[in-house]
Design goal:
104 residues, Hemopexin, 4-stranded antiparallel sheet, single chain, 8 strands
């Protein structure tokens, strides 16, 4: 059975694919990290962000550190390889000006 891709992100020449509860990082030459479970890589994440993501974004900050944004349902979390930077929060609570858009 094939794995369902739940999120894809590209940053710094690397590509990230997330499935139910796993990830793999690769570039045009091959796999760099993984496949492995999300919780094995980022064991400090709340359980709700350890799988079945709706979206992911990956970037490299000015210091050269990787920064990740995971979205699940109506919440997001921001973290780096070592710690949570922004605790889980509802997207509409963080950016209230999009509430009318989200209501339809």
């Amino acid at each position: 059975m094939s794995k369902k891709i739940s999120a894809v992100a590209v940053a710094g020449g690397n590509k990230f694919i997330f499935t139910e509860n796993e990830y793999v990082t690769f570039n045009d030459q091959g796999i760099i990290a993984g496949p492995d479970t999300i919780v094995s890589r980022w064991n400090f994440l709340p359980q709700s962000f350890q799988g079945d993501l709706n979206a992911a974004d990956v970037s490299v900050d000015p210091s050269g550190s990787w920064r990740y944004v995971f979205v699940k349902g109506d919440k997001f979390i921001i973290f780096d390889d070592d710690k949570i930077i922004q605790e889980p929060e509802r997207i509409a609570d963080k950016w209230t000006f999009i509430n009318d858009f989200l209501k339809g």
